[in-house]
Amino acid sequence: VPVSSRQAFPLPSLPRKQPTVLVVCGPAQNGAIGLVCARHLRIFDYEPTIFYPKRSPDPLYRDFTTQCEKMDIPFLSYLPTEVQLINDAYNAVVDAVLGAEAEAGEGREPCAAILATLKHVRIPIVSLDVPSGWDVEAGSSGGISPDVLVSLSAPKQCARRFLGRQHFVAGRFLPYDVQKKFELNPPEYPGTECVVALRAPR
User: Fold this and answer.
1) Fewest Cβ atoms nearer than 10 Å: which of 73, 100, 120, 159?
2) Of 76, 83, 87, which is closest to residue 16 (Cα–Cα)?
3) pLDDT for residue 173
4) What is the tally of structural domains in the chain?
5) pTM (two decimals)
């Protein structure tokens, strides 16, 4: 292992029993959602690390970044191409690279290199809204294969092709007029839960 990799990933200090999560954020809206996700993971005593190589100039996204920094969430300067380093250092990866907006396109950097790496990790991947590299309607066309999908607001058309272990929807926050306008039929959220499982674990 190169010295730079050992410095970026102090594996002896990251035993597998710790709830370590790598949150990979893209440059657009889904990346901002990833930053919010990392902040919430920290609140619930997980140990997130963020890889956010192309930061948005949007003031709101900058605020999300600052919040994560002030919570002492570390940011990686690069994503190792040696996948075993990721497998050993983390228990899961949150995919917040492209999402439904996907205007960055899978073929453009840094997204293409990130997806090429994520396709080979062996730890569970949790995709936010739309798995990176998927068409929002048609589904997978060489994108990643997540273990868990968290649909935001409502499942997108591509979710029909999701074959992972668990599918959740997070849409309790949607106002009634929005639900009515788009003819949504949201699931019943138990108690105070903000997400509901659409598919039980396999």
Assistant:
1) 120
2) 87
3) 78
4) 1
5) 0.83
Helices (H), 99-192: 111-118, 176-181
Give yes or no for a contact between 11 and 89, defined as CB atoms under 8 angstroms apart: yes
The CATH number of the domain where 164 resides is what?
3.40.50.10260
d(CA 60, CA 66): 10
Q: Give Cα separations from 127 to 81, 98, 151, 165, 184 (angstroms).
A: 20, 10, 8, 12, 22
Give the range of the structural domain holding residue 60, as residue numbers without chain letter.
1-198
Give per-residue pLDDT as tens, 125-174: 999 988 988 878 776 666 788 999 998 888 888 888 888 888 988 877 77
- Report pLDDT digits (tens) over 49-72: 999 998 888 899 899 999 999 999
Bridge pairing between strands 139-140 and 20-25: unpaired
